Amino acid sequence: MSAPNMLIDAAIFTPLIAVVGILAFARMPNLREAVSILAGLALLLINIELYNSFNEGQSLTRHWVDIVPGLSLSFRIDALGMLFSLVASVLWPVTTLYAIGYMRGHKEDNQTRFYVCFAVAIAAVMAIAYAENLFTLFVFYEVLSLCTYPLVTHAGTEKAKQGGRIYLGILMGTSVAFFLPAIIVTWLVAGTLDFQAGGVFPEQTGIALLSVLLVLYVFGVAKAAVMPFHRWLPAAMVAPTPVSALLHAVAVVKAGVFSLVKILVFIFGLDTLQQIPATDYLLYLAGAGVVLASLVALRQDNLKARLAYSTVSQLGYITVGALLAVESGVVGSAMHIATHAVGKITLFFCAGAILVASHKSNISEMAGLGRRMPITMIAFFIASLSIIGLPPTAGTWSKWWLLTATLETDQLVLMAVLLLSSLLNIAYLLPIPLRAFFPSEPQTDGPIAIKEAPTASLIALCITAGACILLFFFPNPLFELVSQIFTEGSQ
Amino acid sequence: MLSHLPVLQVILPLLGAPACLILGRGKLAWLFALLISALSFCIAAMLLHTVYHQGVISYALGGWQAPWGIEYRIDLLNAWLLLIVSGSSTVALLAAQSSIDVEIAPEKQTIFFVAWLLCLAGLLGILATGDAFNVFVFLEVSSLSTYTLISLGPKRESLWAAFRYLIMGTIGATFILIGIGLMYIMTGTLNMQDLAQRLPLASDSSTVFTAYAFIIVGISLKLALFPLHLWLPNAYTHAPSIVTTFLAASATKVALYLMIRFTYTVFPSHFSQIDIPLEEIFIVLGITGVISASIAAIYQADVKRAIAYSSVAQVGYMVVGLGIGGVLGLQATLLHVFNHALMKATLFMALAAIACRIGVTTLTSMQGLGRKMPWTSFGFVVGGLSIIGVPLTAGFISKWYLVSAAALSDRWLLVLLIMIGSLLAIVYIWRVVEALYFKPAADSTPLKEAPLAMLLALWLLVFGNIYFGIDTRLPVSISAEAAIALQEGRP
């Protein structure tokens, strides 16, 4: 076994080793957070090393154990997985930095449990990203659901528990009721669960069966938040903001769309997908979800709720891109996984910063806040542009590819839907920073002097906002990685 | 010496029982019983090893050859069951002293161990013997001692539960005896191999037909197959905690063994396939049992009772596998026999540990125990995950095989219902998890963690649940070989 293959183990176990360190230093907060940050940086280095090996064309695989003959826990790095793991591992240390400021500024309880669950979630994300087969992916998909539950219910209030119940109920329920049966049927029909270029189903598989399977997968992977199984995401917003930021804008939801893209491309295969009539219906359903979620977002006054519905809508873009079943669509989807991640995490960071600094969570109270928290609000503005898809921000590129794909497949309705949703994005995102800087009525100084958020949090949100702009000017590494999704599979 | 292993397997605990009485009260009786049980386990392991490598062992009791003498016949099926029963007895006995110190008065403790060894001898006897009448004798030995064990429970209800079980159990045993008698009338033999050869000759007669019906119904009663399960929740709830642990892991399994033995080895196969639609009956009753008992489990206030209902549901799964038939269906059943013994013993062991510290096992009394008894609580959670069938636990393996068997025989409705059964399991397990970890404790009095012996036994089982969920070579290969042998050996 060569060294790069061992790195796969290292990537999965680094966060778990961090868990031990976090528990050991439970009573020394500074050391405890230092462990988290160091583990984050180590994981980032490991992933960069993996990325280099991957670019050299090495085949990176790791086989753990055969559970039942043919059903194994094993890992193999491909372009899509590399992208996802890089996104998660870049954002983990940044979020930890942010969390230190937030959790202390907010004086949260049970911080050790918080950091432990967080690290376990990252380990699960790594394993999902590298999964070689559907079984491995499913196992860690469930681990991710379970270990994020304590994070959702962190506050311990009745509302938090209610949210947690919806969260786990929908995620576990759909995965057992739809996802697992779909996997079992796939196993029985195809005889394998390995992700393969061009799909695994034999030629003679019935269209009806494939349609049923496709529907089961799309709804079963509820982490992708395809309507009507999106309710868990707004419910999860009771969690502390760092959780909402990394997990419910990046890790968990992206694990969902990542799984979905992986299934669509490597279990079904684009050619098969084009022949299934159900694809079209699901495409329209996802398209409807994009617009509906945007409309709902427009009506939310709670900032985090608005961002949550915005996430539901943006995840819809990724689903649509994959369901279009053309390469440009998948490329757009994959790029959107990355660009939406940096954009949305910035927005959540800002929301949390506002909460810590001013104790405000409703948008209507935020007018005029710009003068007191200029850095936060500028970052919010940049990230908003990225979500909308305007230059000079990263979101431009992914939306560009997605629109190209709709043109390529003559789905003009969908193109209109995506454009309409972008307009709605403008309507629900931009007013927030604009009113913050240019309030319609002059603000009187309140009794509490509001300052910027804790420094650690500020640094974090500046990094991610900077990344939004950076990825606009230097999208090439990202694009090169993404375009290997298909070339590498055909080798 | 080695050639006498089949009879030693039964004689050892049978002679150990009176010896235990002589040893008198106190720890000595416990240590002796533990030693006997552990020796039985070693013998079972040696037998399994021998059978696996050298084939069926036939042992003539007292040197009298069958069909005149009594034959002990060990094939893979009963060697496998012998291992499960003696293993669960040993693990349960390990924790027994700590548990009964709280629940049973000192002067009754010796009787307790005597009854335990007799029960063990009875169960092992049923498994080892190749003689139909001998089965009845050992059935009575185990039943009578089981009634004694249950009536030793701490509350007055135990007497009532034991009495109900006595009535139902006696009816069941009588039915079996009538069936055996009728077979003897028609064939003049009691040896199972002999019966298998002679019964097809007389299979037109309504006497044999009646014998068949009596035996199936009688065994179903002992098996607690829906709708003949009503004795089980009471018996399990009110028995001493550690007795429940042992019985849940062994007694129903032995009844299931009898069902397999009679339907596969003794009676001609066309009985269950043509004359009586037994396969369909098994599937319908089994899955109805799964669903109804799981729903009943959700509404129980006493966790021990809920888990007892879960046992009825799990028996349902095993019978479903039997109904599906074929090598795969049988294999699913045999796997579940083993895996269910593991997970049910884990759950009841955790409950025994809780009962040992707080005296009751109601849901409300268990609130907040996650912090007070972390090791016990976590053990319960692992057992619960296994019951649900989460991947990487033993429960997943049996579900996987069962669903595969159902799907390959094109019973898609059954697949769906099995999945619903899993979902219901999530609900009744989750109620407990929520009480353990997410509800505030009723009072803040500190509790000690369970006694070391109980924790040791519990964690042995927890380890088993996880180990056999990952490295499945042993149970899968043995159950596969046993299923093939049964299928081929069908007269």
From TrEMBL, chain A:
<dbReference type="InterPro" id="IPR050586">
    <property type="entry name" value="CPA3_Na-H_Antiporter_D"/>
</dbReference>
<feature type="transmembrane region" description="Helical">
    <location>
        <begin position="35"/>
        <end position="54"/>
    </location>
</feature>
<feature type="transmembrane region" description="Helical">
    <location>
        <begin position="455"/>
        <end position="474"/>
    </location>
</feature>
<keyword id="KW-0812">Transmembrane</keyword>
<feature type="transmembrane region" description="Helical">
    <location>
        <begin position="207"/>
        <end position="226"/>
    </location>
</feature>
<keyword id="KW-0472">Membrane</keyword>
<feature type="transmembrane region" description="Helical">
    <location>
        <begin position="6"/>
        <end position="26"/>
    </location>
</feature>
<comment type="similarity">
    <text>Belongs to the CPA3 antiporters (TC 2.A.63) subunit D family.</text>
</comment>
<feature type="transmembrane region" description="Helical">
    <location>
        <begin position="246"/>
        <end position="269"/>
    </location>
</feature>
<feature type="domain" description="NADH-Ubiquinone oxidoreductase (complex I) chain 5 N-terminal">
    <location>
        <begin position="71"/>
        <end position="115"/>
    </location>
</feature>
<dbReference type="GO" id="GO:0005886">
    <property type="term" value="C:plasma membrane"/>
</dbReference>
<keyword id="KW-1133">Transmembrane helix</keyword>
<protein>
    <submittedName>
        <fullName>Multicomponent Na+:H+ antiporter subunit D</fullName>
    </submittedName>
</protein>
<dbReference type="InterPro" id="IPR001516">
    <property type="entry name" value="Proton_antipo_N"/>
</dbReference>
<feature type="transmembrane region" description="Helical">
    <location>
        <begin position="412"/>
        <end position="434"/>
    </location>
</feature>
<feature type="transmembrane region" description="Helical">
    <location>
        <begin position="166"/>
        <end position="187"/>
    </location>
</feature>
<feature type="transmembrane region" description="Helical">
    <location>
        <begin position="112"/>
        <end position="131"/>
    </location>
</feature>
<feature type="transmembrane region" description="Helical">
    <location>
        <begin position="337"/>
        <end position="357"/>
    </location>
</feature>
<feature type="transmembrane region" description="Helical">
    <location>
        <begin position="281"/>
        <end position="298"/>
    </location>
</feature>
<feature type="transmembrane region" description="Helical">
    <location>
        <begin position="137"/>
        <end position="154"/>
    </location>
</feature>
<feature type="transmembrane region" description="Helical">
    <location>
        <begin position="79"/>
        <end position="100"/>
    </location>
</feature>
<feature type="transmembrane region" description="Helical">
    <location>
        <begin position="307"/>
        <end position="325"/>
    </location>
</feature>
Automatic annotation (TrEMBL), chain B:
<feature type="transmembrane region" description="Helical">
    <location>
        <begin position="342"/>
        <end position="360"/>
    </location>
</feature>
<feature type="transmembrane region" description="Helical">
    <location>
        <begin position="307"/>
        <end position="330"/>
    </location>
</feature>
<keyword id="KW-0812">Transmembrane</keyword>
<feature type="transmembrane region" description="Helical">
    <location>
        <begin position="450"/>
        <end position="470"/>
    </location>
</feature>
<feature type="transmembrane region" description="Helical">
    <location>
        <begin position="238"/>
        <end position="260"/>
    </location>
</feature>
<keyword id="KW-0472">Membrane</keyword>
<dbReference type="InterPro" id="IPR001750">
    <property type="entry name" value="ND/Mrp_TM"/>
</dbReference>
<dbReference type="GO" id="GO:0008137">
    <property type="term" value="F:NADH dehydrogenase (ubiquinone) activity"/>
</dbReference>
<dbReference type="InterPro" id="IPR003918">
    <property type="entry name" value="NADH_UbQ_OxRdtase"/>
</dbReference>
<dbReference type="Pfam" id="PF00361">
    <property type="entry name" value="Proton_antipo_M"/>
</dbReference>
<feature type="transmembrane region" description="Helical">
    <location>
        <begin position="207"/>
        <end position="232"/>
    </location>
</feature>
<feature type="transmembrane region" description="Helical">
    <location>
        <begin position="380"/>
        <end position="400"/>
    </location>
</feature>
<feature type="transmembrane region" description="Helical">
    <location>
        <begin position="31"/>
        <end position="52"/>
    </location>
</feature>
<dbReference type="GO" id="GO:0042773">
    <property type="term" value="P:ATP synthesis coupled electron transport"/>
</dbReference>
<keyword id="KW-1003">Cell membrane</keyword>
<feature type="transmembrane region" description="Helical">
    <location>
        <begin position="281"/>
        <end position="301"/>
    </location>
</feature>
<feature type="transmembrane region" description="Helical">
    <location>
        <begin position="79"/>
        <end position="100"/>
    </location>
</feature>
<feature type="transmembrane region" description="Helical">
    <location>
        <begin position="112"/>
        <end position="139"/>
    </location>
</feature>
<keyword id="KW-1133">Transmembrane helix</keyword>
<feature type="domain" description="NADH:quinone oxidoreductase/Mrp antiporter transmembrane">
    <location>
        <begin position="131"/>
        <end position="424"/>
    </location>
</feature>
<protein>
    <submittedName>
        <fullName>Multicomponent Na+:H+ antiporter subunit D</fullName>
    </submittedName>
</protein>
<dbReference type="GO" id="GO:0005886">
    <property type="term" value="C:plasma membrane"/>
</dbReference>
